[in-house]
From TrEMBL:
SUPFAM superfamilies: P-loop containing nucleoside triphosphate hydrolases. The keyword Transferase applies. InterPro entries: Gal-3-0_sulfotransfrase, P-loop_NTPase. It comes from Parambassis ranga (Indian glassy fish). Keywords: Glycoprotein, Golgi apparatus, Membrane, Signal-anchor, Transferase, Transmembrane, Transmembrane helix. This is Galactosylceramide sulfotransferase. It is a single-pass type II membrane protein. GO terms for molecular function: galactosylceramide sulfotransferase activity. It holds the Pfam family Gal-3-0_sulfotr. PANTHER family: GALACTOSE-3-O-SULFOTRANSFERASE, GALACTOSYLCERAMIDE SULFOTRANSFERASE.
Amino acid sequence: MHEGNLRFCWAMAVKQVRQWRSMCKGLILGTVLTSCMILLYCLSTPQIHFSMPEVPVPYSCAHRPSQLHPKLTTNTSQKKPGQTCAPKVDIMFMKTHKTASSTFLNILFRFGEKHRLKFAFPDSRNDFFYPSLFQRSQVKDYRSGMCFNIICNHMRFNAPEVAKLLPMDTSYITILREPAELFESSFHYFGRLVPFTWKIPGDDKLTEFLLDPHRYFDPEGFNSFYLKNLLFFDFGQDNTLELDDPRVAEGIKFITDRFQLIMLVEYFEESLILLKDALCWDMDDLLFFKLNVRKGSTVSKLTPELRARALEWNAVDWKLYQHFNQTFWKKVHAYGLQRMAEDVAELRRRNKEMASICIEGGHAVEAGSIQETDMQPWQPIGEKSIMGYNLKKNVDKAHRKLCRKMLMPEIQYLTELGVNLWITKLWGHVREIINW
Ligand SMILES: *[C@@H]1O[C@H](CO)[C@@H](O)[C@H](O)[C@H]1NC(C)=O
Ligand SMILES: *[C@@H]1O[C@H](CO)[C@@H](O)[C@H](O)[C@H]1NC(C)=O
């Protein structure tokens, strides 16, 4: 009798455990499948937010000047030395590739923090799903009608979408670099990510490629845009156009009309002074250290012949660059050559002073000699050619924070500003593990 009861209970218990188990399994499977479905749905329909009503963008997202700068006069039209004006805080920085733009980003991050501005950041990685065209929905926590001050991460420019995101008074700025140098840098940094380069023979793939680019280049090939007219591509244009195609001139005109200031890497300090003038910033806002500098041994010196070939290969970018080189120097002349020379000298002096305050040894060092992981820059695939800095040990209290921020590589700074970069970081860990 007892035994029977016991057996019955046992059987019931086993049955219940089984039921529980299958329920748990079902639950887990269900959860996993639902998560996968949600993930797939999110990935496949980035326009998920757009069922909400559209709210037009505001005219300005600047704080009231009275709250921010109680001391300011209202004389913004006539800027003379000693007079003040309200700094422009609504900024679109079109971050082009391999153009010292990480250095400039660091300037923007600090400016944004100083004025408590709202950045339109990407989500989960450090670009807006480059190379696909920019969409507002890629912005972290985006909702229609929201006020963002600054957007500055890598994107493929898409004017209508950017215009629907940012206030109307936004200043559009960007930076260009001489295309032969840019091409060389891009080849070094991204070459391994472009499959058609794998079949280029020899150690000096760049030279081999430039001797007969049409033999290797595949316009349809994965990532091929990195190696032809990359600037034009970044602006959302077609990088494979022939030079005499009317769309080239149209593209350049479009950029001219849209962007208020086009800086040049070759004249970085002069560019910053023009920026200060155009946006009414302070000299303090322009202080910088060169970030993402390449180790000397990996910087190839292009021969005049290779340079000519690189320019011919990137003819559209060359035309773009020459056009904006002209407008740049017109601006410098309008600013005043003498005044520009003085301001540049002042900026260089201030930067040098900061370097002696902040940087151990006063200069950049190779990745292996960087002590803090927080100061390690992101490296190109397959090598450690990007240099970084060591923060001095006993920087005085007044400068400690500023020094740290000025030296901080982009990924770390983005993390500090609250961007979750799990895709970028996962990719970094995978590379670390397979030692790539
Ligand atoms: C603004 O500038 C004008 C001309 O330079 C001057 O007459 C006027 O007093 C200035 N106003 C203020 C508030 O400084
Ligand atoms: C840019 O313009 C300046 C001034 O006109 C000129 O001296 C320089 O050679 C130009 N640079 C290029 C790369 O065209």
